[in-house]
Write a structure and sequence with these properties.
Elements lengths: L13 E2 L5 E2 L1 H17 L4 E6 L5 H9 L3 E4 L1 E2 L2 H13 L9 E2 L14 E7 L7 H14 E11 L1 E2 L7 H13 L6 E2 H10 L3 E2 L3 E3 L3 E7 L2
Parallel strand pairs: 3-4, 3-7, 5-6, 7-8, 9-10
Antiparallel strand pairs: 1-2, 8-13, 11-13, 12-13
The protein binds S-adenosylmethionine.
Length: 217
């Protein structure tokens, strides 16, 4: 996916110094995301974050899980600058420079093989169903055997939007582009299976989010 129209609430971040962006949502959910990731990832190996955004999550993840080598990525040049700025503020030997990665472009896995962890936070609702399947298919190729993919974000539960906030946000995405919007949790589990992955038990997260996970066995 390349820059596309989104409602103003979809990807909010305010500018700080040297290109550093600050997303209040990323700060709010960072501790819960890190706890959830820590529970399911291996102690060592390679971890790719897709759509790293401002970089706020990955600098905290790399600090919290120092034996994993963390690779940040995003499609947006401004976000890549922000990730570099956050990384410079917290230099860590296990945090690689951010790279440009369009996770909806077929073929990206070839340049990112042998990942033990692939993490995606808050993107699936901002892309189409077909793009989500491409992202998952490529992730399945990029994972090492035994590796895990973690998809965090807002989802429909068995086709149902389960809070007033979810209903409003989903409607605003659909009004902007009918292909966008919350994915159904069951449909995403099917996408993971279609990509040859084995889904794990979903984890309930704060603010009505879910972490959907699958392993490459
Ligand atoms: C809502 S933000 C989430 C950022 C971060 N993961 C977080 O939770 O704070 C969505 C991010 O997805 C990125 N993005 C959008 N389309 C993408 C694509 N096709 N491939 C990779 N990243 C993409 C945007 O640039 C943005 O940084």
């Amino acid at each position: 996916m390349n820059p596309r129209a989104l409602p103003p609430t979809a990807s909010l971040a305010s500018a700080e110094r040297h290109g550093r962006l600050n997303a209040a949502a990323a700060e709010r959910n960072a501790a819960a995301v890190i706890r959830m990731v820590r529970d399911v990832v291996p102690a060592t190996g390679r971890a790719l974050e897709i759509a790293s955004g401002t970089g706020q999550h990955i600098v905290q993840l790399a600090a919290a899980l120092p034996e994993l080598i963390w690779q940040p990525s995003d499609v947006d040049p401004a976000r890549l600058v922000s990730i570099a700025a956050w990384s410079a503020d917290s230099p860590l030997a296990n945090l690689r420079p951010a790279c440009r990665l369009d996770a909806t472009a077929p073929g990206w896995a070839e340049a990112h093989t042998a990942q033990d962890v692939i993490l995606l936070v808050n993107l699936l609702h901002l892309i189409s169903g077909d793009e989500a399947q491409t992202l998952i298919d490529e992730s399945a190729k990029a994972l090492a055997f035994g590796g895990i993919i973690i998809l965090y974000g807002p989802f429909m539960r068995s086709g149902v939007l389960t809070s007033a906030g979810d209903l409003a946000f989903h409607a605003s995405l659909r009004d902007t582009n009918p292909q966008l919007g919350f994915k159904n949790d069951m449909a995403v589990l099917d996408m993971l299976k279609a990509a040859g992955l084995t889904p794990l038990e979903p984890v309930e997260m704060p603010a009505n989010n879910l972490a959907l996970m699958a392993r490459k066995l």
